[in-house]
From TrEMBL, chain A:
The keyword Transmembrane is assigned to this record: yes
Record's protein name: Cobalt transporter subunit CbtB
Provenance organism: Methylopila turkensis
InterPro entries named in the record: CbtB_put (IPR012667)
Parts of the chain that traverse the membrane: 20-44
Keyword field: Membrane, Transmembrane, Transmembrane helix
From TrEMBL, chain B:
UniProt keyword list: Membrane, Transmembrane, Transmembrane helix
Protein name: Cobalt transporter subunit CbtA
Pfam families given in the database record: CbtA
Residues annotated as transmembrane: 96-118, 130-147, 167-184, 189-208, 223-245
Keyword Transmembrane helix attributed: yes
The organism's taxonomic lineage, starting at the top: Bacteria, Pseudomonadati, Pseudomonadota, Alphaproteobacteria, Hyphomicrobiales
Organism field: Methylopila turkensis
Keyword Membrane appears in the UniProt entry: yes
Length: 61, 252
């Protein structure tokens, strides 16, 4: 039995909530990145990511 | 290892790999069509650009009308032109470099969404399982929004950008949620709800442009096909790679 298993069996509730926090945080991190590459309307961001946005099918222009 | 770090590490590796796959496919499928479409786009923009009218030729009586026409032309031009003063990468290596960077960065973002969502079901266990998650990503992020808003080549003017972005995001969210309910819901009621959720954005309808595209119909069509097929290969690679890599980082 690994250290992680011992810890999670000792405190299942704490383990589950820290799992949930990790999952939500990683998900929001992904949302922020895509907001920047695909949706930011600053002209500089648009021009740099122009071909990428067209290739993914993000609404552009 | 902490689950957050595991997800970010897996997503970074998956994003790098699938972002490079995207770049390779895109370079030979979509990119040549973007370049072709931009030639038509700049022709249209030049045609729409305001031309100084001839003061000497136009009599004093229609001067006001000419000024009004100039203003209207300028306004129409600005409505769909890019800000000409803003920095843009130079054609060639610089432009390609920014495209690679944006491809990889977005791929990391999509991988973060896919890997974190799959952790809700206990984490991916094989490349094949990951592939199915990738196909769901393709359905939600490429197919569903393309039904109402076919991928726009340069020179294809859409409705107001904010309205299209809002519809795009809403459609992706509704489709992803609907697919999750279909796959993991355990009752027929949930399945009916899922089908309704996936269909709903198309009942509402995407905001449509009232301006005809500046590019030939065939180019417009070929572009839509190229983007959707490129998206399919990208999402298949992203999902399979995530499924192959995730088990190597333990249970977390």
């Amino acid at each position: 039995m690994s250290h992680a298993d011992l810890r999670s069996s000792a405190a299942p509730a704490a383990g589950a909530s820290s799992r949930a926090v990790s999952i939500v945080a990683a998900f929001l991190f992904g949302v922020i990145i895509i907001g920047g590459t695909g949706f930011a309307q600053m002209a500089v961001a648009h021009n740099a990511a122009h071909d990428h946005r067209h290739s993914i099918g993000f609404p552009c222009h | 290892m902490n689950l957050f770090r595991t997800i970010v590490l897996v997503a970074a590796l998956v994003g790098l790999g699938s972002g490079l796959v995207l770049t390779l496919v895109q370079h030979f499928s979509v990119q040549p069509l973007i370049v072709q479409a931009e030639a038509f786009e700049s022709q249209r923009d030049e045609a729409a650009a305001p031309k100084p009218h001839d003061h000497a030729a136009s009599g004093e009586h229609d001067h006001l009308a000419a000024v009004k026409a100039d203003l209207a032309a300028q306004k129409a031009h600005e409505a769909h032109a890019h800000d000409p003063d803003a920095w843009a990468p130079a054609d060639g290596a610089e432009r390609f470099g920014w495209t690679v960077a944006a491809n990889v960065l977005s791929a990391v973002g999509f991988a973060l969404l896919l890997v974190s969502a799959s952790e809700l079901k206990g984490g991916l266990t094989s490349w094949r399982e990951g592939l199915f998650w990738g196909l769901a990503g393709f359905a939600a992020f490429t197919l569903a929004p393309s039904i109402g808003l076919p991928p726009e080549a340069p020179g294809v003017t859409g409705a107001a950008l904010e309205a299209r972005q809002l519809w795009w995001i809403g459609t992706v969210a509704a489709t992803a949620l609907g697919l999750a309910l279909l796959a993991f819901g355990r009752s027929p009621v949930l399945a009916v709800l899922a089908v309704a959720l996936i269909a709903a954005p198309h009942v509402v309808g995407a905001p449509q442009a009232d301006e005809p595209p500046a590019i030939p119909r065939k180019l417009e069509h070929d572009f839509v096909v190229a983007v959707i097929v490129t998206g399919f290969v990208f999402w298949a690679a992203l999902g399979a790679l995530a499924g192959a890599l995730r088990p190597r980082f333990g249970g977390a």
